[in-house]
Amino acid sequence: xxxxxxxxxxxxxxxxxxxxxxxxxxxxxxxxxxxxxxxxxxxxxxxxxxxxxxxxxxxxxxxxxxxxxxxxxxxxxxxxxxxxxxxxxxxxxxxxxxxxxxxxxxxxxxxxxxxxxxxxxxxxxxxxxxxxxxxxxxxxxxxxxxxxxxxxxxxxxxxxxxxxxxxxxxxxxxxxxxxxxxxxxxxxxxxxx
Length: 193
Known about the structure:
Elements: E1 5-8, H1 13-21, E2 28-29, H2 44-62, E3 66-77, E4 80-82, H3 88-98, E5 102-112, E6 118-129, H4 134-143, E7 163-167, H5 170-174, H6 178-187
Parallel strand pairs: 1-2, 1-3
Antiparallel strand pairs: 3-4, 3-5, 5-6, 6-7
């Protein structure tokens, strides 16, 4: 009996690196192109869950013989969702907002099995960022590290020095909660190598 394929519904190199930490190597990586615009009055928690489930469902429709793993990370201050930063101006606005305050990182993971069963979990982490000086913000923006990242920073990089405390899951903040991911996969019958 052969184990069905594992497909990662994400183009994130960080998620591939995290899976490698637990000896999981997807057979394929298929980015799920979906509209990630929040719905009216949608909370950050519901947004993260909806997007992860939608990504898994979309890729599963294209890869019906595989276990499909998808995730989505949302950075929020209260009910305000911070963008996946595309410009220096967006990055500056995010870092200025996060400076000296607590925020949440919500990472949802969804798995769809070849038999159609689907499960998902949301992992919430709370972080507190030190008060950032204008020079620290400018230097971080100049590094380019925050581009393409939810909330404009990467905790696994230089921004790790900005985080005073973290309650929750470090891998979830990076982009994939490993404990929950492995439990969801094995719970649906995926046999790990």
